[in-house]
UniProtKB/TrEMBL annotation:
Keywords: Signal. It comes from Emiliania huxleyi (Coccolithophore). The lineage of its organism: Eukaryota, Haptista, Haptophyta, Prymnesiophyceae, Isochrysidales. Residues 103-138 form the WW domain. The keyword Translocase does not apply. This is WW domain-containing protein. It comes from the Eukaryota. PROSITE patterns: WW_DOMAIN_2 (PS50020). Residues 1-25 form the signal peptide.
Amino acid sequence: RRRSMLAKALVLFAACASLIRGSEAFSLATPAARHSCRRPRAAVNAGLFDGFQKAAKEREAAKEAQWQAMKDMQAARRDPEAFDKATKRTRYVAMARKAAEAGNLPDGWGCAQDPASGDTYYFNKEKGIASTWDPPLDDMVKILEEQNAL
């Protein structure tokens, strides 16, 4: 008799709860049975959190590149001659870039401005280079290295 009263109370409670909160709130069906009646939902791919994962990968790649650069710098400092040579080369490239912007180019090279874009292009008729957007930095650095080696 007690089980019967308990079962009736439970059914009454479930019925009242379903009226108050909706039909699925306190269903007596097993969870598997409840979910089998529903339509399967498609995965949501709104791209809302995609940026976080992408940004994390980019940050990790940047950290790795920075770490590698630090290791390279430490290795270069262990060899003073190589470090000095790399430092001079960086300085010579900067000097050559400024000279090219001013129009001071090696023999055989010329520069002109593109009328459409206004950008400067470089050419060398002796070497058969019709035009290039990049100044002849390698030739200019080579000249600077020869001048300073004396």
